[in-house]
Amino acid sequence: MSTEQILSLSSNALFLAFILLLIAILPFGLAVKSKGKMFKRLGLVLTYIAFALQLSYFILRWNAVEHAPVSNMYEFMTFFGIMLTGSFLIIHYLYKQSVVGLFTIPVSLIIIGYGSVFAKEVTPLVPSLQSHWLTIHVMTVAFSSAILSISFATGIIYLLRTLDVTKKSISTYALEFVMYCLVVVIGFIGVSTVFNLTTDEVNIHFENAQGDGEKAIYTMMPLIVSKGATTESGESIGMFKITNTVDAKKLNSIVWAFIVGTILYSIIRLVSRKPISVLIKPLTNRVQPNLMDEISYRAVVIGFPLFALGGLLFAMIWAQIAWSRYWGWDPKEVWALITFLYYAAFLHFRLSKGWEGEKTAWLAIIGFGIIVFNQVFVNLVIAGLHSYA
């Protein structure tokens, strides 16, 4: 079987898994409203089959590219989403709570969908990525981040169950803002897909921070470009011109995400005439808040030491091999340290200060925001050694 055929089979397995997980949301939704176990079992069967297909994608792609498929944004975010599915199955085995799947699987699908907008082509690894320690580092970070992300889902469930989302307060506004951010990501997936299918790429020439000529290929309409950017014909382009120390192309994608996401969120609000948190709160009516709080805490207890290994220890070993230094204050390294310190503080406040319930839920949500910022914004916008997507 040729490499192209294996890659095609791999992509088909991932796509089928995506469809099965999308379908699984329905029985999980019915399970939280029903006293019977039929819907729950159906949702679990679909999830297990989807997870097996996701692992098949990963193994087949690894075989085709001859290295662990975690070396670019498409591969990393896809693996992150796969590990989130696996993390839910682990948590379900321990706690038997199908409602966690109802809120975790959509997040997993959003992450995989987000990853799918990036280039899927197989390219040779740059020298700094040609290390087994890269594989160990990135896979451990993805798995630990997925486990930590479970606490985000259970934190959302806890807040929906305990807060009166019909009343205006700082907590309800903050919870609705989280829903808005999720819609923004969905908007990004949608607008990226539409531009890829309907418009031609635009080649833009500009000078980078070092003063060297560089070319960027825009798949979305160029709203934001670097100073002095021109088309191939020499024409000025873009509505806003920014410093070349920021990746204008990737910032352009983020701006488009917020534009489309805001429009999508507004449509949902206009049609339903209710905040999203009010719409989905009934799904948590039978939830035991204390159990969700316990799962949030346990997810952090499991994920934190794994992140310390993958995000710091293994990363330093790889950095020494790739760049001959253990630590260099690269933006990605700094934010990995911030993530580590944040979750260390999370456990400190939980164990010594008695922060439970709503406080734990908000800490878990903020922690997920830090993970997403580290894996998305730092990689895409802030120039550094990890900007390999």
TrEMBL record:
Annotated keywords: Cytochrome c-type biogenesis, Membrane, Transmembrane, Transmembrane helix
Ranges annotated as spanning the membrane: 12-32, 44-64, 76-95, 102-119, 139-160, 172-195, 253-271, 299-322, 334-351, 363-385
Topological relation to the membrane, as annotated: Multi-pass membrane protein
Localization per Swiss-Prot or TrEMBL: Membrane
InterPro entries: Cyt_c_assembly (IPR002541), Cyt_c_biogenesis_CcsA (IPR017562), Cyt_c_biogenesis_CcsA/CcmC (IPR045062)
Record flagged with keyword Transmembrane: yes
UniProt-listed Pfam families: Cytochrom_C_asm (PF01578)
Keyword Membrane annotated: yes
Ranges for domain Cytochrome c assembly protein: 70-181, 261-386
Superkingdom: Bacteria
Principal localisation: membrane
Annotated PANTHER family: CYTOCHROME B_B6 PROTEIN-RELATED, HEME EXPORTER PROTEIN C
Entries under NCBIfam families matching the protein: cytochr_II_ccsB
Protein's name in the database: Cytochrome c-type biogenesis protein CcsB
Taxonomic placement: Bacteria, Bacillati, Bacillota, Bacilli, Bacillales
